[in-house]
């Protein structure tokens, strides 16, 4: 179990000292005291700490069978996309990875760094998440990423071939990316939550669906294999598009509030 910064000190009497707080475990009769040292241990990690952690995660990920399976399954669709791109470099846009100081986002960020090298995605790697703090930005820049300065809410029409990396984003964010690129879908790839699961999950009729472009997207999906930390890459697919988007029923939708999109 991870140290939560509380230490068992006694049964019985409780006393508040100047250096820490006390809390009584309900019904246990024991008192836990938070030490000043524990408080210090909880300080925010430095950019150097996070960079090192991400390097470690990259190394571990590159060695595991999950990664070889991902490469194997993405090989063909990425090859087709590259052929279509011709001489143009492929850009990456990362939305919604989260704070790079946190564990799951570190796994997810490590994966896109590996994929960038593996598939020679030599354009720019742009990144944005509203929760990114100064330390996250410093870490992203260390890995040659360009931090997007303003919240685009997914409205980013691209002119060059682009992989959108969006692990576990809200449905309106996928909807906005699709909508902005609807006439040129073969120009983009979306690596994110499986669209196929949305139609049933979001329970709307086609007409007033909260993410109509997600439902209408002419996407082919390649699903991810299982990863050792279940919630990191679950329900993820690569979506490719061979043709532009067609007519969309309820095209004015997707504007309602989505608790996962700021
Ligand atoms: C469900 S969380 C997923 C976090 C992380 N990828 C994971 O799987 O644990 C959705 C993420 O989308 C981010 N998000 C919300 N609005 C966004 C926006 N407008 N642009 C980019 N990311 C956004 C949130 O801050 C959050 O980190």
From TrEMBL:
Which Pfam families does the UniProt entry name for this protein?
SRR1
In this chain, the stretch annotated as Disordered covers: 1-48, 243-262
InterPro entries (alphabetical): SRR1-like (IPR012942), SRR1L (IPR040044)
Query: Which intervals hold domain SRR1-like?
Result: 85-240
- Bias (Basic and acidic residues) occurs at 39-48
GO CC terms in record: cytoplasm; nucleus
By sequence similarity, the record places it as follows: Belongs to the SRR1 family.
Q: What is this protein called?
A: SRR1-like domain-containing protein
Organism, scientific name: Powellomyces hirtus
